[in-house]
Amino acid sequence: MRKLKSTVVTALISGAVIAGCGEAQKSQQAEQSSAAPAVKQTVITVFAAASLTESLSEIGSAYEKKNPGVKVVFNFDSSGTLKRQIEEGAQSDIFISAAPKQMNELEKSGHIVNGSRFDFLENKVVLAVASGNPYTFNTFAELGTKLQNCKIPFAIGNSDVPVGQYSLKIFESLGLKPEELEKAGCLSYGSNVKEVTTQISEGMVSAGIVYATDAVSAGLTAVDTATEKLCGKVVYPAALTGGSSSDSEARKFLDYLGSTEARTVFEKIGFTVLKQ
Amino acid sequence: MDLYPLYNSARIALISSVLVFFLGICLAYYVAKLPALIRGALDVLFTVPLVLPPTVVGYLLLRFIGPHRFIGAFFFENFDIRLTMTWWSTVFATTVVAFPLMYRTTRGAFQSFDRNIEDSARTLGLSDSFIFWRIRLPCCRAGITAGLVLAFARAMGEYGATSMISGYTPGVTATISTTVYNLWRTGSDDLALRWVLLNLGISAVVLLCLNVFESRGRKS
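Output (structure tokens, whole complex):
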């Protein structure tokens, strides 16, 4: 029986350790960004909306090449999650949100460097389908009939994710009730826009609402673009969050984001750069 | 407070516990009889989900059961069934993740089982299946129950692979763990806390059960 007991205890301990790993990863991510390497290298930590993953990564490595000794570290997730992480004390120098809401809330709680905020990019919200459009979605207007008696769910972002908020605004403009669609199993919520694009391209959902830029980077087809009347303007504000001593370096990187080189990258996948 | 996630998590954990119970006992029994080399290899294969991050399990599962992949495409094209994004899709994830706990614990219990008892039963002319069901299993009851409780608890708390395979649809695929994460994200801390407390309660009960089984096993 002693042998048995030790097996059980080992299994229990390993189980507990492994179950804990999931949560540990998240906090580790935040910690890693604050742990500056021993060599005198400036680290700029950028918390940016998931929809900026491709473009900002490209710009970041270009910037590192031009400025030896500077390392740009990114944390890409939904703006809602990033906002929560900053509130919980995660180290970040720059925050670029996919909607004003999260930025407003951080500004109110005093996490933004005064006067550093500006409207940075503009994006479009689209109805995206996998190649071949297997469920023949054509316009936002027909979403109501399309989502009735669905076979598989339609994907939008969660209500704390900007793209989810824009999607819910579209649902509201169209007179659709998300609660009813949820109950019928016709609506699924992604925790950020990239989850939605993957679910669409993997065929796990019929279609979804994402940003025009994400549809481009994920190789999806945008069958319809939401008008300003349908979901408002999609503006990405950026600001300094004063996370570390490399404040001036962070400011320089923020300026670089408005440069012609950076602009080309953003415009290539469909962003409009609002401020130079 | 909508209790659907509790109901959903519980039924998923129950189903996968039943699956894992039979699979774990069968495989533990047969693997123990194999030659050392094959046994070692299978041990690694069956235990690996225990040490893999749940997201890796989720990724690998999606590679097989996604509607465009191998097994997923087969079911989709022939039966029009999608193996992802439903409440029962989560069972795939929880079964894979919980299996090693049942398998390992049962293997351990079988190993410490006194073979002399089995041999003497055989000299009395008892059949192998009688020996297995009426002698071996009752003797190893404590270990097997402990493994089952652990597997149930693990299935109940699965998050990573679950969220990748079933997504998050309130009232359909939402489990306790995905609900807590989504409540936290949306700033509904009060509600999240209630779920967290409920979860702590469940874990306490599970561990208590484990203790009871263990002490009972010691007595026998």
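Chain B touches chain A through 51 residues (CB under 8 Å).
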